ParA family protein
Amino acid sequence: MSQIIALTNQKGGVGKSTSAVNLAASLASLDRRVLLVDLDPQGHASMGSGIDKYALDKSVLDVLLGEASAGDAIVTGLSVKYDVLPGNGDLTAAEVELLDRDERQSRLSTALATVADDYDVVLIDCPPSLNMLTVNALTAAHGVLIPLQCEFYALEGLSALLDTVEQIKESVNPELAISGILRTMYDKRTSLTREVDKQLRDFFGDALLKTTIPRNVKVAEAPSHGLPVTQYARFSRGSQAYRVLAKEMIRKLSL
């Protein structure tokens, strides 16, 4: 059975899309069949996978509106080893477009049900906000992976996200659980990182993943080349960290 994992944090700039792309690539390199769903209007996960977000014939918005099936919109045969259900700026219209649609919060779940058996894991890159797109992702998902930057504002706003997860769990998706908290842009040499690290351990306990993603210039450069860092600079510290993350997630989720 496929595992569907939503990567979400309503705070931008925490490495969410970067982590979605590189976790997808790392899992695929370990022979897992992976689908990456780009539900963020910024389209960064699509671009980071080598897809021109401005030249899409079909996108995840068409799937949400029932104008295309997931199978028709999925892009295969890329230079990366995983498949992508791409998204772009058209998704900004989703909030309004879905208002008058039946079962608007479960449209992604319904669409993914038709293709999920073709994959071991489906990763959903959510927008940096708690809107209808994020609700669709959480309704479809089995787990939530939350990337967090190690800074003083790391916990700000997380209570709203955790409340939303709990509401979705109680109302429409009882299987939903926190799959892990991922520390990104991590530099253990600084006292700030150590202080925030303690906050996160006290707050999240065992949900805090052992793997950390370091600050690394190669991770920042890779998207401009349309590649995961695991292909762009496979021996970099960032690349190695995402491979370790993939192995940890495989063990944690029995992928």
